[in-house]
């Protein structure tokens, strides 16, 4: 028994020493030893080999490429008036008359079938489909068939992910969080000064770098000259809680959110001691004017870190950008847009909070191969004269979607949990009522 304890103690000591020398020290100084790059190259070669082995069993490769699409239906996005006008015209109906026509039924039936078969909103809250198998559980049904060689590689991969990577990543995450709590608490005891701000930023950066390496992150930052500056607001598309770690790995931000209890509460209080963050009590979150006031006070103080906000308000599956809530764009100041795009080949970063709790999500992330993503810093944007908050939010959203190669949608991400608001239904009813009573029919006729 004594010999076993000695062996276990030696193994644990060697384990921590390797972690400290190969990972923690490079994280503190912000350098890379090339281990992650080598790991990614081996991983890419392995996944390419597995994909080729699977594709070899298919006789019709063209059919394989078509069936591996993401399943999004190509729809006609023309306005209701134009489509209904076209149906009436094709049936030789008089467009000048504003009566109800049976041909109108085809339009509503078509839209109904589209929503049932492939709703463009709810599909954004499910994992993005892959065009090849990544030796994880999520895959296209065409890749369920594997050869015995690929099966052997999968078994080896399970052992590596759960018996080597998982313990390593849990250790790193524990060290990173402990570093943040202890370091921020100690820094918080110092008087306000430049030294305190510098130490606070160092503590936050090192913590996020350690946590990023706990996920085997491979992050590429583009256009760093546009990085958010103090006294501004950073807005980004939202896929996962890990978005914060991805962005804070390259710079420090002030966080905005609700006060929590438990471990999260301990972390929040430690962070608040070291540098100004904006935490709200649950009752304060309902007071819109109070929230706007506190955020505006923070933004217009050029000595404070830029605020990090995700205007979508919920996680989207990294294929789209949904409606930006206007609150972030009513505050004023400079907006620094950021586009984040994950590579789903190595792991699914999307968190569906309505189906998976945080523990199961983190377990899935820590047993994935890696986390690869691109981050684009866009040029700063300001609200133009005579531009309201809604149009400004849409302009920023369009820029992020275009840069990240994401689909731009006007729907509210809150539909993941709530039903469609009556406002949207009433708008469609109003548009159709205008057709029935004959309004705008002559203009549609002239256009067609």
Automatic annotation (TrEMBL):
Pathway: Glycerolipid metabolism; triacylglycerol biosynthesis; Phospholipid metabolism; CDP-diacylglycerol biosynthesis; CDP-diacylglycerol from sn-glycerol 3-phosphate: step 1/3; Lipid metabolism. The keyword 4Fe-4S does not apply. SUPFAM superfamilies: Glycerol-3-phosphate (1)-acyltransferase (SSF69593). It is a multi-pass membrane protein. GO terms for molecular function: glycerol-3-phosphate O-acyltransferase activity. Keywords: Acyltransferase, Endoplasmic reticulum, Lipid biosynthesis, Lipid metabolism, Membrane, Phospholipid biosynthesis, Phospholipid metabolism, Transferase, Transmembrane, Transmembrane helix. The chain crosses the membrane at residues 12-35, 146-164. GO terms for cellular component: endoplasmic reticulum membrane. The keyword Lipid biosynthesis applies. Its main location: endoplasmic reticulum. It comes from the Eukaryota. One of its GO terms (biological process) is triglyceride biosynthetic process. Residues 232-343 form the Phospholipid/glycerol acyltransferase domain. It is found in: Endoplasmic reticulum membrane. Belongs to the 1-acyl-sn-glycerol-3-phosphate acyltransferase family. PANTHER family: GLYCEROL-3-PHOSPHATE ACYLTRANSFERASE 3 (PTHR23063:SF10), PHOSPHOLIPID ACYLTRANSFERASE (PTHR23063). This is Glycerol-3-phosphate acyltransferase 3. It comes from Leptobrachium leishanense (Leishan spiny toad).
């Amino acid at each position: 028994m004594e010999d076993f304890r000695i062996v276990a103690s030696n193994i644990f000591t060697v384990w921590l020493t390797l972690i400290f020398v190969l990972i923690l020290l490079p994280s503190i100084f912000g350098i890379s030893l090339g281990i992650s790059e080598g790991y990614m190259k081996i991983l890419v070669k392995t996944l390419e080999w597995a994909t080729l082995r699977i594709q070899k069993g298919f006789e019709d490769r063209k059919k394989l490429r078509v069936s591996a699409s993401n399943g999004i239906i190509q729809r006609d996005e023309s306005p209701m008036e134009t489509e209904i006008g076209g149906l009436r015209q094709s049936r030789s109906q008089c467009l000048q008359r504003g009566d109800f026509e049976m041909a109108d039924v085809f339009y509503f039936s078509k839209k109904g079938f589209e929503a049932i078969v492939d709703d463009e909103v709810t599909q954004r809250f499910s994992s993005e489909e892959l065009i090849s198998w990544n030796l994880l559980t999520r895959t296209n049904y065409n890749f369920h068939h594997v050869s015995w060689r690929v099966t052997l590689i999968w078994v080896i991969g399970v052992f590596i992910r759960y018996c080597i990577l998982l313990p390593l990543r849990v250790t790193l995450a524990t060290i990173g969080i402990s570093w943040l709590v202890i370091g921020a608490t100690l820094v918080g005891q110092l008087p306000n000064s430049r030294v305190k701000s510098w130490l606070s930023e160092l503590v936050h950066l090192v913590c996020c770098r350690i946590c990023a390496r706990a996920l085997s992150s491979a992050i590429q930052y583009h256009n760093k000259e546009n990085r958010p500056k103090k006294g501004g607001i950073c807005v980004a598309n939202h896929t996962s809680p890990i978005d914060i770690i991805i962005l804070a790995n390259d710079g420090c931000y002030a966080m905005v959110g609700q006060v929590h209890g438990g471990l999260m509460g301990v972390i929040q209080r430690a962070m608040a001691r070291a540098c100004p963050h904006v935490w709200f009590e649950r009752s304060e979150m309902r007071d819109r004017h109070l929230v706007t006031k506190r955020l505006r006070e923070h933004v217009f103080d050029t000595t404070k870190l830029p605020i990090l906000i995700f205007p979508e308000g919920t996680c989207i599956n990294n294929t789209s950008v949904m409606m930006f809530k206007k609150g972030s764009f009513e505050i004023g100041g400079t907006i620094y847009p950021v586009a984040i795009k994950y590579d789903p080949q190595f792991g699914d970063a999307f968190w569906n909070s309505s189906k998976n709790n945080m523990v199961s999500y983190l377990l899935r992330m820590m047993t994935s191969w890696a986390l690869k993503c691109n981050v684009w810093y866009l040029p700063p944007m300001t609200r133009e004269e005579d531009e309201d908050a809604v149009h400004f939010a849409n302009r920023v959203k369009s820029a992020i979607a275009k840069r990240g190669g994401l689909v731009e949608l006007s729907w509210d991400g809150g539909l993941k949990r709530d039903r469609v608001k009556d406002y949207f239904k009433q708008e469609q009813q109003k548009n159709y009522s205008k057709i029935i009573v004959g309004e705008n029919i002559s203009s549609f006729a002239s256009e067609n």
